[in-house]
Write a structure and sequence with these properties.
Helix content: 25-40%
Cofactor: [4Fe-4S] cluster; Mo-bis(molybdopterin guanine dinucleotide)
Bound molecules: ligand MGD, iron/sulfur cluster, molybdenum atom
GO molecular function: 4 iron, 4 sulfur cluster binding; formate dehydrogenase (NAD+) activity; metal ion binding; molybdopterin cofactor binding; NADH dehydrogenase activity
CATH architecture of the largest domain: 3-Layer(aba) Sandwich
Structural class: alpha/beta
Strand content: 15-25%
CATH class of the largest domain: Alpha Beta
GO biological process, one term: formate metabolic process
Family: Belongs to the prokaryotic molybdopterin-containing oxidoreductase family.
Distance between the termini: 60 Å
Radius of gyration: 24 Å
Protein name: Formate dehydrogenase subunit alpha
Number of domains: 4
Number of helices: 24
Strand order of the largest sheet: 5-4-16-15-14-6-7
Length: 688
């Protein structure tokens, strides 16, 4: 049999595993291990194993669709592009907004960023990083001068104490979970902090089960215990940090005594003590965190708190240490690096910085200039503007995002998107957002593209084309370029390959400047920053100094604040939301993957046996979950792995969408929604 193997990078999570796509008669038919990647050494999780199954699904979009009299009709590319170009030209710059995508390549995000700022001339561009690690980007930039994971994935195995807080690593970054197990077999202690005893928690030496939203209180309590015992790293603090006195003043308050922290968080006093001791005395402690930390109205506070404890104990800039924010989507790091954000161009060059603005305007040569040098709206703010300030935003171009399932408070999102005059959705499948669009454009998936993506550890790796796209689907960057050409900007979008886009981008982006397709085309690829062609890349950040003006990390006093909506008599249960190993976000890909869908064919609500008993609910019984925003009917899953008083819903399933219930309350700085804590009530469904 004539089989071809094409090495590529996994399209799901930010771990960035490599595998081969197996191609037969021009079609992808399977995956096979690729052993030379240092990230996963030939192993993959179930999503990687079955990453071929959705590619040739009969549901793939194959033709442009235009809505006529409320119904989608197939159209030619010429007709669709002309309609979009004419419509886009009819709006003023700030009436348009763009959502780019953490699912597509760096090159495609760069193309979209250039399109937004150069063609539409709008400031309003953002993407799902807003719902995810916006707090990390803002929080870490504020204290370290750079908002990314500090160490590399293989480095985690070197740690002597792995402290996992708000990350279900084994289910959501399984091949990073493998490094935790390596550290453990080398003698490291694993501490797990979560409201749920997840598969990750089951491997821990110490499990701190606490109430959602009480992270700062717990971390401040641990820091008080460390300082009281003199376990802080005085030399590191003295040489490399500012702000210790302010931090100390806050954490030494009586609010953070072991007893008080225990009563707020629900964690026994002795466990907090043990965690503080193991953590500060191990010699090399690493923190892994993800959505449990970031998705709060106090997301930035939570991130800074994690930074505080690492500076206090001197666990930065060495192997086995670090603040390791596990980025979620395959290319969310890259989409941020490419400037698919309302405040920066590529490489975090600020749009309000006149020199940066001039640099991009000069390089791009749009005869009529680019978007003004002012910050734009975040995704979550766009939705609020649409509902609260009618007429301000009129038109939206969404590539590879599905806010009709992923944004908080879906009734609000639906209202917002329906108030648009013109919506274009570009996707590989018809999703819940596409249904509301005026035009839907079919694009290529990862298996049909060349390009690069940047994983959570800042490793820039390649996608390699394995098959032709279905029907008339086109590459995302080609579609963007064709619209630009139809609007009169052919010269600025004259690229013939993804590589040409990369070359243009790297020349404008200091942290990528030393990279090219030849250097990236090897198993270990390159970590940014990589400023010159001779530079070997940078697996560990902040070795000698931080990226702050004086080179010092900034410790900050973070007072504990509760989440926006706390349980009360009417809505007595604390709801938290998240993921499971088998499914991916809004399910467009994994629910079309037979092997994955078979494992978990629908959603559920996890509840403690005592809560279930009080409601009179049995396992697998359908119940109503109700918040101040909406209600859903969903299957109860009774388990003693969840904290009493807290319930959990995975947000993948449209038929029982968690985001019907969640609250659209935002962190004041990062504008990330509080997806991890709101109040609900649960009702037994009375038989008729
Ligand atoms: N299988 C799978 N893997 C994925 C994804 C997927 O959809 N499916 N998505 C990817 C993406 S984009 C992301 S961002 C990552 C997310 O990866 P994770 O952050 O690991 O995912 P979540 O399940 O959202 O949340 C993690 C944990 O936070 C806990 N938690 C809830 N409330 C709190 C709290 O207040 N504090 C703390 N400390 N913990 C709390 C939850 O119980 C949960 O176990 O996963 C990536 N990987
Ligand atoms: N309640 C709750 N809500 C959450 C979260 C939570 O923990 N709880 N987590 C949040 C987080 S961290 C995230 S990252 C978001 C994710 O939210 P989204 O990004 O909206 O979710 P995805 O399902 O990944 O949607 C991506 C879309 O891209 C499409 N796509 C895939 N590949 C390509 C491609 O190559 N080209 C194009 N054009 N399209 C493509 C897919 O079909 C899909 O429609 O959800 C957020 N929402
Ligand atoms: S761990 Fe992430 S990158 Fe690796 S195979 Fe699984 S989903 Fe893909
Ligand atoms: Mo995410």
């Amino acid at each position: 049999m004539d089989l071809k193997y094409v090495q590529t990078t996994c399209p799901y999570c930010g771990t960035g595993c490599s595998f081969n796509l197996v191609v037969k008669d021009g079609k992808v038919v399977g995956t096979a291990p690729y052993h030379r990647s240092p990230v996963n050494e030939g192993k993959v999780c179930p999503k990687g194993t079955y990453a071929h199954e959705f590619i040739n699904s009969p549901d793939r979009l194959t033709k442009p669709l235009i809505k006529k009299d409320g119904k989608f009709v197939e159209a030619s590319w010429e007709e669709a592009i002309k309609l979009i170009a004419d419509k886009f030209k009819s709006y003023k710059p700030d009436e348009c907004a763009v959502l780019s995508s953490a699912r597509v390549s760096n090159e495609e995000n760069y193309a979209m960023m250039k399109f937004a700022r150069g063609v539409l001339k709008t400031r309003h561009i953002d993407h799902c990083a807003r719902l995810c690690h916006a707090s990390t980007v803002a929080g870490l930039a504020n204290i370290f001068g750079s908002g990314a994971m500090t160490n590399s994935i293989p480095d985690i195995a070197e740690s002597k104490c792995v402290f996992v807080i708000g990350s279900n690593t084994f289910e959501n970054h399984p091949l990073i979970g493998r490094q935790i197990m390596k550290a453990k077999s080398n003698g490291a202690k694993v501490v797990y902090v979560d409201p749920r005893k997840t598969p990750t928690g089951k491997q821990a030496d110490l499990f701190l089960q606490f109430y959602s939203g009480t992270d700062v209180c717990l971390l401040n309590g641990m820091m008080q215990e460390i300082i009281k015992n003199g376990w802080e790293n005085k030399e590191f603090i003295e040489k490399r940090c500012n702000g210790f006195d302010e931090l100390k003043k806050e954490v030494m308050k009586d609010d953070y005594s072991l007893e008080n922290v225990s009563s707020v968080t629900g964690v026994p006093v002795d466990d907090i003590k043990t965690a503080a001791e193991w953590f500060s005395k191990s010699g090399a402690s690493t923190i892994l965190y993800s959505m449990g930390i970031t998705q709060h109205t106090t997301g930035v506070d939570n991130v800074k708190s994690v930074g505080n404890i690492q500076m206090l104990t001197g666990n930065l800039g060495r192997p086995g240490t670090g603040v390791n924010a596990l980025r979620g989507q395959n290319n969310v790091q890259g989409a941020c690096d490419m400037g698919a954000l309302p405040v920066v161009f590529t490489g975090y060059q600020k749009v309000i910085d006149e020199a940066a603005h001039k640099k991009f305007a000069d390089a791009w040569k749009f005869p009529d200039g680019i978007a003004e040098g002012k910050n734009g709206y975040e995704v979550t703010v766009m939705m609020d503007v649409l509902t609260d300030k009618p007429g301000e935003l009129k038109c939206m171009y969404i590539m590879g995002e599905n806010p009709m399932i992923s944004d908080p408070d879906l009734t609000h999102v639906e209202h917002a998107l329906k108030s648009l005059e013109f919506l274009v959705v570009q996707d590989i499948f018809m999703n819940e957002t596409g249904v509301l669009a005026d035009v839907v454009l079919p694009s290529c998936c990862y298996a049909e593209k060349d390009g690069t993506q940047t994983s959570t550890e800042r490793r820039v790796q390649m996608w390699r084309k394995a098959q032709d796209p279905p029907g008339e689907a086109k590459l995302d960057w080609v579609i963007i370029s064709e619209i630009a050409k139809a609007m009169g900007y052919g010269e600025q979008f004259a690229w013939k390959s993804a590589e040409e886009i990369f070359t243009e981008m790297a020349a404008l982006t200091p942290s990528y400047a030393g990279m090219d397709y030849v250097r990236l085309n090897r198993p270990e690829a390159l970590h940014w920053p990589c400023p010159t062609k001779e530079h070997p890349g940078t697996p560990i950040l902040h070795i000698e100094k931080f990226g702050m003006p004086d080179g010092k990390g900034l410790m900050t006093a973070i007072p504990f604040k509760y989440q926006q909506e706390r349980p009360d008599a009417e809505y007595p249960i604390l709801l938290t939301t998240g993921r499971c190993i088998w499914h991916w976000h809004t399910g467009t890909m994994t629910r079309r993957s037979e092997s994955l869908e078979r494992e978990e064919p629908t959603g559920w609500i996890e509840m403690h046996p005592e809560d279930a008993k009080a409601l009179g609910v049995k396992n697998n019984e359908m119940v109503k979950a109700i918040s101040r925003r909406g209600e859903i009917t969903i299957k109860a899953r009774i388990t003693d792995t969840i904290k009493k008083g807290v319930m959990f819903i995975p947000f993948h399933f449209v038929e029982c969408a968690a985001n019907m219930l969640t609250i659209n309350a935002l962190d004041p700085i990062a504008k990330i929604p509080e997806s991890k804590a709101c109040a609900i009530k649960v009702e037994k469904i009375q038989e008729a």
